[in-house]
Amino acid sequence: MNEIRRVAVVGAGQMGSGIAEVFARAGLDTVVCERDATALRAARERIDRSLRRAVDRGRLDPAGCEDARARLLFADDLEALADRQLIVEAVVEDETVKTGVLARLDEILADDGAVLATNTSAIPVTRLGIATTRASHVLGLHFFNPAPVMPLVEVVSSLHTGPDVLRRIEAFAADTLGKHVVRSRDRAGFVVNALLVPYLLAAVRMAEAGHASPEDIDAGMLHGCAHPMGPLRLADLIGLDTVEAIANSLYEEYKEPLYAPPPLLSRMVEAGLLGRKTGRGFHPYREV
Ligand SMILES: NC(=O)c1ccc[n+]([C@@H]2O[C@H](COP(=O)([O-])OP(=O)(O)OC[C@H]3O[C@@H](n4cnc5c(N)ncnc54)[C@H](O)[C@@H]3O)[C@@H](O)[C@H]2O)c1
């Protein structure tokens, strides 16, 4: 089996650009594919900013920064990905969009042994895999935000994922990317979001009920439980549209009221108040 050297990321939002940076910093030849020209430009700037920050903080030397930049190619068409050995899709958390992208990539990829990974937070990987003709080569590779900083990756096998594909990608995530790998069965939310999202939704319900202000809810968990960030600021960082989509997947899977998105969350998403990426959510943000 050839070593994985040629990779791609599809969807260059906050997660896709972070995953592309992780790949480039690991020395991989990386193509970033994003269909929206403004988002593609923003991704390039976001990666540049993040690489510069890593240099300023002494986590990357200037030569490493230049090498990573040189390994990144940007494209607006999936056709550019035909020779890739591994592609991670990180498009919006929408099953129809994801199955459309995966089915198209399946047609385009030249190598039958190439692996398609999804960064979905909560959509069953089995359902995404069967949208392709290579379900044995589809699995979940779930990074955390911001991907260059957070050490964890959840590796999720579907009922069709081949054991050798699973082992190969686990070894790649641990040895090539230097990530801490946990395995999860194909259950909505995997390990982390199945635990985290009900907590975030509880914080939204608390704000909705006027139980406490968003500032005090966050301060409570920051200073009372030593969390690095309060739940509403974390929901803003994830993106309220993504939190709502994950909640819907969890609710659809388990039918437990604690997973149902509260009305305030849905109204904020409808209003375009998506959190940090749009400049306002439960809190205001200057840098989008
Ligand atoms: N935000 C988080 O904290 C987080 C963490 C882990 C996983 N995820 C998952 O990662 C995925 C992406 O989330 P995000 O926060 O980066 O979202 P985002 O909204 O920031 O980015 C999604 C990007 O996908 C692009 N896109 C949509 N359709 C496309 C297509 N057909 N081809 C190419 N690009 C397309 C959009 O233009 C956008 O730039 C979702 O599945 C989400 O659940 C998110």
Walk me through this protein's architecture.
With 288 residues, the chain is of the alpha/beta class. It folds into 2 domains: 6-184, NAD(P)-binding Rossmann-like Domain (Rossmann fold, 3-Layer(aba) Sandwich); 193-278, N-(1-d-carboxylethyl)-l-norvaline Dehydrogenase, domain 2 (Orthogonal Bundle). It is built from 11 helices and 8 strands. Strands 3-2-1-4-5-6-7-8 form an 8-stranded mixed beta sheet, with helices on both faces. It is globular. It binds nicotinamide-adenine-dinucleotide. The site of nicotinamide-adenine-dinucleotide (NAD) has 29 residues, from helix 1, helix 4 and strand 6.
Question: What characteristics describe this protein?
Answer:
binds nicotinamide-adenine-dinucleotide; N-(1-d-carboxylethyl)-l-norvaline Dehydrogenase, domain 2; Rossmann fold; 8 strands; alpha/beta; 2 domains; eight-stranded mixed β-sheet; about 290 residues
Strand order of the largest sheet: 3-2-1-4-5-6-7-8
CATH-defined fold name of the largest domain: Rossmann fold
How many β-strands, per DSSP?
8
- Rg, alpha carbons: 19 Å
Secondary-structure-derived class:
alpha/beta
CATH architecture of the largest domain: 3-Layer(aba) Sandwich
Query: First CA to last CA: what distance?
Result: 41 Å
Number of individual domains: 2
CATH class of the largest domain: Alpha Beta
- Total of DSSP H or I helical runs spanning 4+ residues: 11
Q: List the uncertain runs.
A: none
Mean pLDDT: 96
SS strand fraction: 5-15%
State the shape.
globular
Please estimate the helix content. 40-55%
